[in-house]
Amino acid sequence: MRTHALLPVYVALFVWGALWLRDERIRALVPLRTPVERQEG
């Protein structure tokens, strides 16, 4: 019963994850890590 109730959540997470991996704009919208600043020199 619980898995049937959570199936839409699992599908939504899968779809958002696929979009996050594919689209740079979504990665900018939802950054999972902070950008690393490079030091010159």
Structural account:
There is one protein chain. It contains 2 helices and no strands. It is mainly α. The protein has one domain. The chain is elongated. The model has no long low-confidence stretch (mean pLDDT 83).
What does the secondary structure layout of this molecule look like, with pairings?
Layout: H1 2-22, H2 24-29
Concise overview:
With 41 residues, the protein is mainly α. It has 2 helices and no strands.
Radius of gyration: 16 Å
Query: Would you identify the regions where 5 or more consecutive residues have pLDDT less than 50?
Result: none
**What number of structural domains do the residues give?**
1
Supply the helix-strand structural class. mainly alpha
Biggest sheet layout: none
Strand content: under 5%
Extended strand count: 0
Core attributes:
mainly alpha
